[in-house]
Amino acid sequence: MIQYSIRRRLLSGLLCATGLIHMGQAQAASPAIEPVRIGMIEGLSGPFANTGEAVYRNLVWAAERVNARGGVKLPGGNRPMVIERFDSKGQTEEALAGLRSAVDQGIRVITQGNSSSAAAGLIDGIEKLNQRDPTHSVVFLNYSAVDPSLTNEKCSFWHFRFDAHADMRMTALMSVLKEDAALKRIYLIGQDYSFGQGVLREAKRQLGTTRPDVTIVGEELHPVARVKDFAPYAAKIVASGAQAVLTGNWGNDLTLLVKAAREAGFEGSFYTFYGNALGAPSAMGDAGVGKVIAVADWFPNTPTAASEAFYQSFRQRFPKPEDDYVHMRMQLMIEALAQAIERAGSMDAVRIATELEKAEVTLAGQTARMRAGDHQFQQPLAVATMDRQGAPGTRFDVEGSGYGFRVVRQLTAKQAELPHRCSMTRP
């Protein structure tokens, strides 16, 4: 287990944080120091570019922390971490092109997350690459692609998921929804691809089990990243008489949906997977107070001193309000990778993957471990409700909006854990 002090990092690391990645890249030019290169394949242009840039900031900050303590310890000397960007443009084929480019450049650690379809394509592509050329195998770290099948039917020795999958998130969300006694009518809406389809399917299953008295008054799937005006969808929601909306939407597809619903006069609640940032709180404004519920592995208003120091250090590194979107799981992912490489004693992908199966990391009071059977990270989950900054339990707001999220339910890693159906083939 690794434990790192946020305050100690602030005293030493933040003084030089802005130059650490560039320093690592400069050192890479020297043949004596080969950096640990991580290829981030993500949508950095197009409608979801803001989510890709948010990921990049998180990975840069995590790499800076590793570099601030001397880098990754390997035989022959410590090595700096470097994050290298490959723009998938939000398309699976472009993600595969990014994979080929990264591999051609000698990168052996790939990370991606903002699309389960792209993640599935990368898993398949990496399986084929590693079978064809085992001496240059690649390991894939997934921070956000949460289609449950990726660690079940499509599980792979080379793939590790560091986010809770959609069924785990839904179970956490339902632990709060089931206590909403006034709720009798709900509308389900999502993005029309594997993740969005899976969210609606699991929502119906869990509603039937936990709240059979709730009627689903609407069920809708819409194209991903192609709807510019959600007013027609909002009109259907209002006309249905729904008291709540449940959605797995993310990025602009969520922000535009909640904005349209507010403008249409919808006064119900939003049960969301990602309603806690990227413009959604400001889009809802006062209409979202007490009505937007989100689930995550961690929230800035988690009521511990270690969590508060962690969040404040991120805000010092990235002070612009629009950059305010920190992911604990991405920080834990990079710590787990550094641990695995050091234990492996090399950049060999098989050795790294074998050590990642044993990863257990702690940061800012958050402890998580990798489950070897399916490579699904096991970590606490929390559910939070939108409130005005300054209200009890809401010290920090989101993106300078004046609204933050107050934690109302915390699940331990054991409580959040679900069984798997993975039958993994190992090299």
Average pLDDT taken over every residue? 92
CATH class of the largest domain: Alpha Beta
CATH architecture of the largest domain: 3-Layer(aba) Sandwich
Structural class based on helices, strands and sheet pairing: alpha/beta
Number of helices: 14
Helix content: 25-40%
**CATH level 4 superfamily of the largest domain:** Response regulator
In angstroms, what separates the terminal alpha carbons? Answer: 26 Å
Q: How big is the Rg?
A: 21 Å
Per CATH, what is the topology of the largest domain?
Rossmann fold
InterPro entries: BCAA_transport, Leu-bd, Peripla_BP_I
Domain Leucine-binding protein: 35-390
Organism: Hydrogenophaga crassostreae
Family: Belongs to the leucine-binding protein family.
What does it look like?
The protein has 427 residues and is an alpha/beta fold. It folds into 2 domains: 2-164 and 305-378, 3-Layer(aba) Sandwich (Rossmann fold); 167-296 and 380-416, 3-Layer(aba) Sandwich (Rossmann fold), CATH 3.40.50.2300. The protein has 14 helices and 16 strands. It has helices at residues 6-12, 17-28, 49-68, 92-104, 116-132, 166-177, 194-210, 231-240, 252-263, 280-284, 305-317, 328-344, 349-356, 413-416, and strands at residues 2-4, 36-42, 81-87, 109-112, 139-142, 159-161, 185-191, 215-222, 244-247, 269-272, 292-296, 360-363, 366-371, 376-378, 381-388, 403-411. The chain has a 7-stranded mixed β-sheet, sandwiched between helices. Strands 3-2-4-5-6 form a 5-stranded parallel β-sheet, sandwiched between helices. The chain has a 4-stranded mixed β-sheet with strand order 1-12-13-14. Helix 9 (252-263) links the parallel strand 9 and strand 10. The longest helix has 20 residues, at 49-68. The radius of gyration is 21 Å and the shape is globular.
